[in-house]
Amino acid sequence: MAKREVDIVVLSDLHLGTYGCHAKELLQYLKSIKPKAVVLNGDIIDIWQFSKRYWPATHMMVIKQLVGLIAKDVPVYYIPGNHDEMIRKFKGFHLGSLKITNKLSLKIDGEKVWIFHGDVFDVVMQHSKWLAKLGAIGYDMLILINRFVNFISQKMGRGKVSLSKKIKNSVKGAVKFINNFETTVCDIAAENHYKYVICGHIHHPEIRTIVTKDGPVVYMNSGDWIENLTTLEYHDNKWSIYKYAEDAVAQAIDVSKKKIIKESPKEMMANLLQEMNLKSNKSLNNLSDTIEAA
């Protein structure tokens, strides 16, 4: 199968290691594309809720798929979020074509693009991290309940529903938080002369122009792989929101678990490093001519 070419892919809020992560669907998506560069914009592995008892084969297959891109010298930028904040201590770390950074500034076709996870603008995260962690556990439970509800709903011939979306859309405080988050992000981006700003964190995929006192800024959010199953893509000089639900090609890809060989953690790490075929002199400067790290 010919893979769909994409210049830049921005993925965020995968939450690998949790019950809510749609790893199978994510794997199908990754197998359907051929990106020139990948940005992992936070909350990739959910360290807050990580448990040795829950790490399905499909979650490991997603990691292997990403490692496979690094092995092919595809630039992969990892920007940690709040759920994988432990990785922030490795800022500046290079491993093959992988680079860990807290934020990313790109120049694409002459325009400045600012990419970061976004939790730095979350008041709850900054002042009540314990409350944020408690909320994350509650959210994961809600997703589990939602899956059970959808299973029953589909058996009855009805469509899927998103309980968390209904709650967020009906609670004025949640809607206000999203609007304030987007406005704050764009105000700061405009002050620093960015035309585009890309975030994750709030699980709300969107592309819209926000007018600030310093001029218009295009705000973009990649969404998540818990509810929305969305990604930001840049191709043919245009940004767009990818939606798995509308991609029949990706949905048809077979990711059978039967092909997986069980490995011990030590064997798994050794095989991943071998697959990457690391060389100390590899460079990240192999983006296309229209894309450059700023």
Explain what the structure shows:
The protein is α/β, with parallel strands linked by helices. The protein has a single domain, classed as Metallo-dependent phosphatases (Purple Acid Phosphatase, chain A, domain 2). Helix content is 34%, strand content 23%. It contains eight helices and 13 strands. The protein has helices at 23-32, 57-71, 123-127, 129-155, 163-170, 172-191, 248-251, 265-276, and strands at 4-11, 33-40, 76-78, 94-95, 98-100, 104-108, 111-115, 196-199, 206-212, 215-221, 230-235, 238-243, 291-293. The strands form two sheets. The chain has a seven-stranded mixed beta sheet with strand order 4-5-3-2-1-11-12. Strands 9-10-8-7-6-13 form a six-stranded mixed beta sheet, with helices on one face. The chain is globular, with a radius of gyration of 19 Å. The two termini are 35 Å apart.
